[in-house]
Amino acid sequence: MTLLLAMTGWDYGPWITRFRAAAPDLGIVTPDDRFDSGSIRYVAAWNAPEGQFAMLPNLEVIFSLGAGVDHLLKRDDLPDIPVVRVVNDDLTMRMTEWVVLQVLMHHRQQHAYDAFQRERKWDPLWQPAASAVRVGIMGLGVLGRDAAEKLSLLGFDVAGWSRSPKQIAGIACYSGEDGLKAFLARTDILLVLLPSTPDTAGIINADLLKGLAQDGVMPGRFPALINAGRGALQVEGDILAALDKGILKGASLDVFETEPLPADSPLWSHPLVAITPHIAADSDPQAIADGVAAEIARHERGEALLHTVDRGKGY
Ligand code: NDP
Ligand code: OXD
């Protein structure tokens, strides 16, 4: 029983160590090793080398090394077997930390104070209470829901938007195309935690940004955008135009149309944009190896896998 670790651009060392410790009965190989391709029953992948899966005739399950599975579902060589994604408290908490940091940066006007500090300017700004600020979260899955609950605990007025209708205590829930307009119209800080699918491609565009609330209590009133979902969701030219026209008052972006973000992107130097390099919720090798080992043990016992992806929906 062998698992192939296939991840382009990551350091294999810590992953091999963690996988060996988490699943001592499993052989662990990487694309650089010599191995019998017929022996591979499991793959754990992040941007696996092109054509890799087609060479593995006895593959039973593919594990994504991230919560997102767009890197797998877009492949031509994906066999018709279960795809399992990362769902664990470690990743969820990391995302929520990043989200809370970014929401508070916009709410507490930290970007303005950073600029004041550079100018040695002592200028206290009027500060609204969190309860007067409406946060809208696109995506109420594992990550969106945790963010909603934590932001609500901090006192923000939180709403969420998802594909299917939901009921979450203390969160105003909107769904589908029909609910989008009303959701946007009551959103001062838009947080995007959607997966990248054909339906969500380019969803953060000029039309959507124009629909955000322009009547908020924040100084300047204009809304802010935070995206940690995927770069494919956003039209960067539209975001820049919205910032320059004053439709948006700021943006925090962790994901980009092209990653790494090209050095000549105007986003780098825009004074209203905060950039992080796709680290909102890094994958922890230990937590992920433990999760994959637990799923393989279930599969070997003939039990259902826990976190399989719905390939029809794309997430
Ligand atoms: P989930 O699958 O748990 O949740 C996805 C949510 O998006 C669901 O609420 C779903 O609605 C909603 N959704 C999907 N498609 C649509 C649509 N067309 N219209 C409206 N709502 C839609 O995913 P997670 O919360 O675990 O993760 C979300 C994404 O975050 C990942 O796919 C990944 O791209 C990104 N991510 C980014 C990281 C980073 O470091 N930047 C780290 C980890 C993840 P419904 O509930 O009705 O199905
Ligand atoms: C993920 C990511 O999908 O890190 O987990 O982007």
Describe the structure.
This protein has a 7-stranded parallel sheet with strand order 8-7-6-9-10-11-12, with helices on both faces. α7 links the parallel β9 (189-192) and β10. It has 315 residues and is α/β, with parallel strands linked by helices. It is elongated. The chain is 30% helix and 17% strand. The chain has 2 domains: 2-88 and 283-300, NAD(P)-binding Rossmann-like Domain (Rossmann fold), CATH 3.40.50.720; 89-275, 3-Layer(aba) Sandwich (Rossmann fold), CATH 3.40.50. It contains 9 helices and 12 strands. The model has no long low-confidence stretch (mean pLDDT 97). The structure holds NADPH dihydro-nicotinamide-adenine-dinucleotide phosphate and oxalic acid. Oxalic acid is lined by residues 66-68, 86, 281, 283.
List the helices and strands and how they pair.
Layout: E1 2-7, H1 12-22, E2 27-29, E3 40-46, E4 61-64, H2 70-73, E5 83-84, H3 89-107, H4 110-118, E6 134-138, H5 142-153, E7 157-162, E8 172-175, H6 176-185, E9 189-192, H7 206-210, E10 224-227, H8 236-245, E11 250-253, E12 273-275, H9 285-300
Parallel strand pairs: 1-2, 1-3, 3-4, 4-5, 6-7, 6-9, 7-8, 9-10, 10-11, 11-12
The structure holds NADPH dihydro-nicotinamide-adenine-dinucleotide phosphate and oxalic acid.
The site of oxalic acid (OXD) has 6 residues, from loops.
